[in-house]
Amino acid sequence: MEASDERIGEVIEASTGGFSAQCYQLYKLPALGELVKCRYQDVDILAVTCNGSTSSLEPGRRPIARGYEEASEEDLYNNNPQLKQLLRSEFSTVVVGFKRGESFYHYLPPQPVRLHSFVYRCSPDEVISFGESMEFLMLLSGVQCEVPIEELIAACLRVMGAFHSPESDFNMRAGRKLAEIYSGDYQRLRAILARLK
User: Is the pTM value of this prediction over 0.85?
Assistant: First the structure.
């Protein structure tokens, strides 16, 4: 892992196809579509964030409104410091590949990450290198998650595309791969492409 990587959370549920993590800081969720990673032995497992949520730490206990007399949300949290101890922010991911040594692989790793593995944001160089191949879109296009797949794919490509220069052929390569994947589903292809702006 690169020294500049930002650790954002810890795995609380894991499978070969994805994992869920709890953020160390309330509301400090990775963006929808952001590439994150975990280390397992000598492998960095790469995943795309597919959902985020904030809820009570106690499963059956719903938060209650507290801000009627507060001037701002910031005041609400300052005047109720216990809230940061009673709430948690979590995110779910879809595994889209892995990195061993300097090589990226755009298919599922042989093992899932372990519980309590640390989750890191990927560096810009890792995002660019991983995006050299669009094969990860095959994995991403076949998942079922809490958000519509069109939204997830478009968000992922927007996030990854932001790390490329305007002269890059990233968007063109992504468009070609999507046209290949959705050759028989013009409506879905059109919906994804419309969300890339």
Answer: yes
